Amino acid sequence: MDVYEAVTSRRAVREFRDRPVPREVLERVLSAAAWTPSASNIQPWRAYVVTGAPLARLKRLACRRVTSGDAWDEPEYEQYPPALKSPYRERRSAFGEQRYGALGIPREDVEARQRAAAGNWDCFGAPAALFCYIDRDLGPAQWSDVGMYLQTVMLLLRAEGLHSCAQMAWAKYRRSVAEVLAPPDELLLFCGMSIGYEDDATCAARVGRAPLKETVTFVGG
Fold first, then answer.
1. Are 187 and 136 in contact (CB under 8 A)?
2. CA 177 to CA 216: how far, in whole Å?
3. Residue 156 three-state SS
C-alpha cells in the first residue's frame, strides 16, 4: 500500500471483527510511528496499548457507567469552542447527519443517537485500543505534535491491513481509563483509538471533504 492509498483509505471505522491483532504488528507500527516529527524532537506523546483482559475490564467499567447514567468526568480540555463558527459548525452538523443517517437514525431520535454513540465504550468491538496521553504542562505546539503522531499510527495501521477510530470521547470517561492504566498524575488523556480488522458486513459511510479551494490557497505560479 503506497502513501496515497493509506491516506485515502483511512477512515473512522465503527464496526470491528473479533479477530485479535498480533502483538508483533502493533510493535512494528508503533516502532515506526516513533519517527513522527516533533518540535526539537521532544516526542510529547505517551501511548498505552490495551488488549485482552485489561481491555475487557475497561469496556465493562465504561459500559456500566453508561447504563447507570453516570455523569461524564469533568473536561480537562475543550474539544470544541462553545460557539463553533462557520464553516466549521456546518461541517460538524453535516457529519452528524451523514453518520446517523447511514444508521437510519433521524435527528429528532436523541435516544437512538445516544445508543449509537455508546458503541464508543465498547471500542466498537475492536480487540485492541490505544490511549494517547500528553504531559499536562505542555502547550499547543506539543498537542499538534501528538496529532501528527496519531495520524502516523493510523496510516501505518492501514499499511498492515488494519483500521482504526480515533475517539476523543474516551476523555469523558478518563477516570475509568486511569483505573485500568494507572498513568502518572502529570499525564492528561487526549484520546483513545480503537484498532482492529473492519467488519466488512457493515455499511461503511464515508464522510466527504471540503473542496480544495475552501481550505487551500495557492500563491505564485
1. yes
2. 38
3. helix
Q: Of 44-48, 77-81, 151-155, which range is least confident?
A: 77-81
For residue 190, give the amino acid letter: F
Q: Cα–Cα distances in Å, from 84 out to 11, 75, 118, 172, 189?
A: 23, 18, 24, 20, 23
User: How confident is the model over 25-69, as pLDDT tens digits?
Assistant: 999 999 999 999 999 999 999 999 999 999 999 999 999 998 898
Between 200 and 189, the higher pLDDT residue: 189
Q: How far apart are CA 137 and CA 185, in angstroms?
A: 11
Specify which residues 51 forms β-bridges with. 128
Which of 89, 88, 107, 87 has its CA nearest to residue 97?
107
Rounded to the nearest 10 degrees, the angle between the axes of helix 23-33 and helix 140-159 is: 140
DSSP string, 29-95: HHHHHTT---GGG---EEEEEEEHHHHHHHHHHHHHHHHHTPPPPPPSS-SS-SSPPTTHHHHHHHH
pTM of the shown model: 0.91
**d(Cα 59, Cα 3) in Å, to the nearest integer?**
33
